[in-house]
Amino acid sequence: MNPVTPTQQRDLVCSTPLFTDLYQLTMMQGYFLQGMHTQEATFDLYYRRQPYSGGFAVWAGLEPALDYLGHLSFSRADLDYLASLQLFRPEFLEALGGWRFSGTVTAFREGRIVFPHVPLLSVTAPLWEAQLVETALLNTLNFQTLVATKAARCVIAAASSPHGGEVVEFGARRAQGPNGALSAARAAFVGGATATSNVEAGLRYGLPLSGTHAHAWVQSFGSELEAFRAYADAYPDSTVLLLDTVDTLKSGLVNALTVARELREKGHELRGVRLDSGDLVYLSRRVRAGLDAAGFPDVKIIASNDLDEQVIASVIAEGGRIDVYGVGTQLATAGGEGGGALGGVYKLAALNGEPKMKLTGDPVKSNVPGVKRVWRGRDREGTVTFDVMTLGEMPKEGDLVSDPTNPLKHTHLPALEWEDAREVVMRDGQRVHPADDLPTIQARARAEALQLQEGTLRLLNPHQYKVSIGQDVADLRDRTVRDIRADQVGS
Amino acid sequence: MNPVTPTQQRDLVCSTPLFTDLYQLTMMQGYFLQGMHTQEATFDLYYRRQPYSGGFAVWAGLEPALDYLGHLSFSRADLDYLASLQLFRPEFLEALGGWRFSGTVTAFREGRIVFPHVPLLSVTAPLWEAQLVETALLNTLNFQTLVATKAARCVIAAASSPHGGEVVEFGARRAQGPNGALSAARAAFVGGATATSNVEAGLRYGLPLSGTHAHAWVQSFGSELEAFRAYADAYPDSTVLLLDTVDTLKSGLVNALTVARELREKGHELRGVRLDSGDLVYLSRRVRAGLDAAGFPDVKIIASNDLDEQVIASVIAEGGRIDVYGVGTQLATAGGEGGGALGGVYKLAALNGEPKMKLTGDPVKSNVPGVKRVWRGRDREGTVTFDVMTLGEMPKEGDLVSDPTNPLKHTHLPALEWEDAREVVMRDGQRVHPADDLPTIQARARAEALQLQEGTLRLLNPHQYKVSIGQDVADLRDRTVRDIRADQVGS
Predict the structure, then answer these.
(1) Coil, strand, or helix at residue B184?
(2) Which chain B residues contact residue A134 at CB under 8 A?
(3) Helix, strand or coil for residue B12?
(4) Do A213 and B341 touch (CB under 8 A)?
(5) Cross-chain residue pair A177–B172, CB shorter than 8 Å
(6) With contacts defined as CB-CB under 8 Å, which chain B residues touch A210?
(7) Which of A22, A255, A333 sits opposite B341 (nearest CB)?
(8) What residue in B sits closest to A41 (Cα-Cα)?
(9) In angstroms, what separates the C-alpha of B463 from chain A's closest C-alpha?
């Protein structure tokens, strides 16, 4: 809420190549010793289940992921450490000395709305390069996508009020590690949060900051009124008073009104009040009425205390009058049903021009082989309705397409306007575009969310967006399965 | 599992003072403008509910927290950023230029077993110093304690097998941000995990590393057998083969036995096999029987695939034969009931020698006022049974003590041996001891866990350890409540 001059975007990248699972490095050496390391591989990054049992996700973390890819190299200390593990041969470690990521990345631009089983990002690179980066890509993209989606869900809930409402991110103290907090602040903004309480996130990402004061402030003074006055003295134009240190209505509201009147006499206005405990519906209605009756209709009511999208929706449904929702733990840790982790995966889809897939007893866990293009279809009203993967060609009306995990579910495509939904964002290890800034990414997410069928955004039991594979991909998959089975029989 | 030469302990500290909530900085300036910033404050850090509905927690993150406190200062860039927010006055920013943490910290040493409502760490410092550090202390200690506790629960579950079993941390790709992954790897080790897959965590913390290979390795070769042979060639003494790329029993096990025989002919032994899907009970029994029958009883079975303490316990209860549990998502994100975030808080307990508390309608959310000492009682057998807070004196047999949140629950103390359970770990901003190393911390956790009543470690419906306040603390609280009420009436 405090406007911030964006400063340099120091990016959140764990820029060491050692931020990876050990097996990536042992496999790299294995490929190297086999002379296979430079074979051209394509890996697809996707997830299988919509987080929070919802109908959509907001794709986030791409820009930090590209920064990571663009800056990766092994330092002398990294190589010394690897040597100390007694797993790696000198010729391999020497080769790592000059190692850089030289691959091509095709991806949805950050902020787009995305769906399960669709490759959100594909890496085409020499096998040992594509293999190393799996862990960090998944770590960054899984978590930021999850938090951006959670934030969008909170924003959708807040927007259901006839009086409007915004969402700010307050979770630093409960986040999973310091950079968990920084990633969460960034991703929450992508998903539509308007500010964060995390000052370092403000500095790194140019995010607007938001803050009030804590109970300790009130406790540190002889009385609540004295504490409120001192805060208003220090911040005459940006004071938000926390009402519940003693008693929200009998003490907090009364003292806040006193201070609001004193500020007005001096030509200032109280910015807001904060509720942090108790029945938020009852208290927010009483506080709103008290503020309005005293002539302060513009004083905002900010609420915190274990909020999430469900609590926000229920507070609004019951007539609560909250203007700003400070969402902490549940946003910064992406809590809730199926929350905490997005099960994104990164699977080999092609090697040396050959399609690759992992067979398994459970078809949901098989990947779709081949180098694919992702097409997004819009109807005449511009409503986004369909993602289709093909081996290249644009889908057309009447094409038979099928569910990515169940060939028995198929349909003929209606007439739609098709967009090649992903772009080459990195070529030969170099970014193709300058990095998108966060307001652009946030606006992209918002704009595309508004193009979805309304039911897709529903928080509970949403409409399920259609994702399909074209006949060419289905045929390739059938051939690949047959070939793998034949190889196994022959082996 | 691969022994690692510990290298320098580059510590995980978000060492910028801007890693804090905005309101900490606005309150600091408020105290500064009131001339209150140097008043001596004591804040207590504690949590209210046992994570995972369990009976204990493993205290973790203290050493990184002390590193953070010891290295905190505002850089020129930090101050320029704060100035750009148009909230802070030049005289305050100038004062921040020379700001250091000069406080005293009293805490449980890292790795000790801890319980709700007990101050685990208390900061006594000038008010503006103690206030700033709240966010980072909570962030680090909340998350690491939560993960260490989760790891300990997994280790307890694994130890319930008559064949033993160890736990390794595999969660980097699903962790909440890169440092979420690093913090989790460190904390998992504190809680008893024996290794991590995260190479950077190995480097930073000297942790043993563990790894196998991925499905992509098998897919990259013409056949599974070829892939297994190539891996065994590269790592003749440390090969672990992933069995489920094609079919665990019909293909994976058969090919692994072939490679195990070939390795043995060359004077090496296959280290292990990994199961990553399917019915782990059935498959592990079949694979164990197959390995044993073929003369490979020492080949370990490693399992992964969405494990947690409940899955581990149920696999063992049904006769599964797994030697190493690779726990990923649920460990790195501290998933499960009440998981994802530990609700640790940091509350003002005294200012300028006066006790302080936050009143609230809900007694569970009130803090215990005053500067307290924490005593831990052991019975004649050495079993840890009781934590008691007093204002200083050692408890003695027959003392009346009461529940921290419910004065109606009280008891007379039995005869116990009392230990002053916390130590001054930082005085005037300087560490008192050299940092504990991680093996020491891990051993401390393990040793104290073994001193608890057995039921306290139970995963479901555990025995609830007793935490109490002495009569002196109870009397102080009563006086403090009366004084606050009187002040409010008088205000």
Answers:
(1) helix
(2) 173, 214
(3) coil
(4) no
(5) no
(6) 22
(7) A333
(8) B220
(9) 27
Q: Which DSSP category does A62 fall into? A: H
Round to whole Å and give the CA distance between A87 and A78: 14
Helix (H) or strand (E) holding A41, with range, is strand A40-46
ipTM score assigned to the predicted complex: 0.90
Multiple choice CATH, A147-332, 2.70.50.60, 3.20.20.70, 3.40.50.280, 3.40.50.2020? 3.20.20.70
Fold observed for domain A35-56+103-135+348-490: nicotinate phosphoribosyltransferase (3.20.140)
Size of interface A-B (CB pairs under 8 A): 373
- How many Å from the N-terminal Cα to the C-terminal Cα in chain A? 65
Nearest alpha carbon to residue B199 among A134, A162, A14, A19: A19
Tokens of A165: 């409402």
Helices A134-159/A178-190 angle, 10° precision: 50
A352 touches chain B (CB under 8 A): no
- What is the rounded CA–CA span in Å between residue A228 and residue A265? 16
Asked if B194 and B168 count as a contact pair (C-beta separation under 8 A), the reply is yes
Nearest CA to CA, how far is B391 from chain A (Å)? Answer: 20
| Yes or no, beta carbons of A139 and B181 under 8 Å apart | yes
Closest approach of B118 to chain A, Cα-based (Å) = 19
Q: Which of B80, B199, B210 to mutate to test the interface with A (most CBs of A within 10 A)?
A: B199
Domain with CATH 3.20.20.70 in chain A: 147-332
Q: Any CB–CB contact under 8 A between B85 and chain A?
A: yes
Q: Which residues of A touch B360 (CB under 8 A)?
A: 244, 277
**B153-332 has CATH 3.90.960.10 classification:** no
DSSP assigned state of B249? I
B200 closest CB neighbour out of A19, A245, A246? A19
Q: Taking CB atoms and an 8 Å cutoff, what residues of chain B touch A197?
A: 21-23
- Measured between beta carbons, the chain B residues lying within 8 angstroms of A255 are 491
Which 8-state DSSP code applies to residue A456? G
Within its chain, how far is the Cα of B325 from the centroid? 19
Report residues of chain A scoring pLDDT below 50: 1-13, 490-491
Q: Where do the CATH 3.20.140.10 domains begin and end in chain A?
A: 35-56+103-135+348-490
CB proximity A142 to B under 8 Å: yes
Per DSSP, the three-state class of B104 is: strand
Task: Mutation target for B interface from A144, A186, A219: give the one with most B CBs within 10 A.
Answer: A219
Residue of A nearest to B485 (CA): A246
Amino acid identity for residue A66 in this structure: L
Q: Is the CB of residue A149 less than 8 Å away from at least one CB of chain B?
A: no
Write out the two tokens for B281: 């009970």
List the pLDDT tens digit at each of the 491 positions of chain B.
333 333 333 344 467 899 899 999 999 999 999 999 999 999 999 999 999 989 999 999 999 999 999 989 999 999 999 999 999 999 999 999 999 999 999 999 999 999 999 999 999 999 999 999 999 999 999 999 999 999 999 999 999 999 989 999 999 888 887 778 888 999 999 999 999 999 988 988 999 999 888 999 999 998 999 999 999 999 999 999 999 988 999 999 999 999 999 999 999 999 999 999 999 999 999 999 999 999 999 999 999 988 999 999 999 999 999 999 999 999 988 887 666 788 899 999 999 999 998 876 667 778 999 999 999 999 999 999 999 999 999 999 999 999 998 888 999 999 999 999 999 999 999 999 999 999 999 999 999 999 999 899 999 999 999 999 999 999 999 999 888 777 665 44
- Pairing mode, if any, of strands B121-126 and B104-107? antiparallel
